[in-house]
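Bit of a strange request maybe. I'm writing a small parser for structure token strings and I need a real example to test against, not something I typed by hand. Could someone generate the tokens for this chain?
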Amino acid sequence: MSLIRRYKEIIFGVGLGLLMWGIDAAMHVRMSAEADLPASFVAELFSPGATQAFFRALFLLIAIAFGFALWRANWRERELRALEEAIISFHRQLDSPAMRIVNHVRMLQTRTQPTQDDLMRTVLELIGEDARTIDELARQYIKFSEQVMAGRTAEALETLRAIIARRTAGQES
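Reply from user aminoacidic:
Good idea to test on real output. This should exercise your parser:
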């Protein structure tokens, strides 16, 4: 089912070419009937003359080329949509550590004792961990931006997918 969805434009082109093949066969059967020459639709459809076969194959190739051109145009759009979704996901990943840092800082600010007890050390360790996460994501984002600016969309998508996979694996552990 995903292949049909992925290559629907090419499948449309093949279907259009086959439809044109059938219409041409029906037209030849009708022309034969008007000229009082016996011809069956099935015979005309599956075993046409050399000229009809050539033109029908030409129709089919043109329709497939049309479907392929549509597929390529839509493929670029799908890639850009996937890139946009990846960027949104990437930004969501940055938001969580940033919000935790803000919350941890607020916790430290509300403490009345300035001494470093166990809670203070734990919170500071968490802040450091989140700061390193944001730093690593920012470095990856710079790499991603360079790839996008260079027009290497597929490579940029792979970079974002790797970031997402790394973050997902880190959250599960």
